[in-house]
Specification:
GO terms for molecular function: DNA-binding transcription factor activity; sequence-specific DNA binding. This is LysR family transcriptional regulator. Belongs to the LysR transcriptional regulatory family. Keywords: DNA-binding, Transcription, Transcription regulation. About 40% of the residues lie in helices and about 25% in strands. Strand 1 (about 50) and strand 2 (about 55-60) form a beta hairpin. It has helices at about 5-15, 20-25, 30-45, 60-85, 100-115, 170-180, 215-225, 235-240, 270-285, 285-290; strands at about 50, 55-60, 90-100, 120-125, 140-145, 155-170, 185-190, 210-215, 230-235, 245, 255-265. By secondary structure, it is an alpha/beta fold. The protein folds into 2 domains: about 5-85, Orthogonal Bundle (Arc Repressor Mutant, subunit A); about 90-293, D-Maltodextrin-Binding Protein, domain 2 (3-Layer(aba) Sandwich), CATH 3.40.190.
């Protein structure tokens, strides 16, 4: 009989392209991954991977196994969510995935209120640049800004929230300097690999062609506050900050629509239903802030 754990390790190497990447993703050591792959190869009587200088490549036998292993994974997740969907207790773990800026600048007070209402629910807020995957049960609820609804996976169920707009912002002091006649141009502050958005009309303020680059939104906002230049930010961030002002004449731009997403049987659990209903009401009340009114 094939051990499902061996299959999980096989999938991790196939997707990561190396034993090291698989070990990192599974939070185990290098030797454990090798042992599991060796055990699967012994059970099947075939070599799954060819070791190359650039990493691990599937053999023809490995490619055959990959398709069946993926089906096993899907069945495993369906089994897990089906059983979980029967859990109607108001306790247990609730994992929510969203971007850091949504967590820290908009929804954390609401998460705190929900946690106080239901102290037996263990909340885990997964706020990072990489959103957890609902289909793989990495999270129970996802809160995302989606520009095109058709890009959402068909297996996800969503509660539609307000639209989200962004604008161009500068520090209050730098704007006052410019309005008093200062002619020094301002830098664009951008997150590395993003660049200046095409929609961001710089308005009446002159800018230089030399950007100031950061790696995350928190640093970007801090740099604007320090008067280093201007940046495109969500309206719910820029308008709420007393140290920031919109750049005169700059455009607003629609980022997308806020969605609260769940998957499969998981959405039927009582704690997930309570949370999505609670947060959707709070989000609806933020409509004017999200569109920049």
């Amino acid at each position: 009989m094939i051990d499902w754990d061996d299959v999980r390790y096989f999938l991790a190497v196939a997707r990561g392209g190396s034993v090291r990447a698989a070990a990192r993703g599974l939070a185990v050591n290098h030797a454990t991954v090798l042992r599991r792959i060796s055990h699967l190869e012994e059970r099947l009587g075939a070599q799954m991977f060819e070791k190359l200088p650039a990493g691990y490549r599937l053999t023809s036998a490995g490619e055959d196994v990959l398709e069946l292993a993926t089906q096993m994974e899907i069945s495993s997740h369906q089994l897990e969510t089906r059983v979980l969907g029967r859990d109607q207790s108001v306790r247990g773990l609730l994992r929510v995935t969203l971007t850091p800026i949504l967590a820290t600048h908009l929804l954390m007070p609401d998460f705190a209120d929900f946690a106080r209402l239901y102290p037996d629910i263990e909340m885990e807020i997964l706020s990072s640049g990489e959103l957890a995957n609902l289909t793989n049960r990495e999270a129970d609820v996802a809160i995302r800004v989606v520009y095109d609804r058709s890009t959402l996976p068909l297996n996800l169920h969503g509660l539609k929230g307000p639209e989200v707009f962004g604008g161009v912002y500068v520090s209050r002091d730098r704007l006052a300097e410019w309005q008093s006649g200062a002619s020094e141009p301002l830098r664009w502050i951008v997150i590395a690999n993003h660049g200046v958005p095409d929609w961001a009309n710089e308005g009446a303020v002159r800018t230089t062609g030399v950007p100031f680059k950061v790696t995350d939104a928190a640093a970007e906002i801090a740099a604007v506050r320090q008067g280093l230049g201007i940046a495109a930010l969500p309206c719910f961030v820029g308008d709420a900050d007393p140290d920031l002002r919109r750049v005169p004449g700059a455009n607003l731009h629609k980022y997308g629509t806020l969605w609260i997403l769940t998957q499969g049987e998981t959405r039927k659990t009582k704690r997930v239903r309570l949370f999505t209903e609670f947060v959707s009401k709070r989000v609806a009340a933020y409509g004017h802030r999200l569109v920049g009114q």
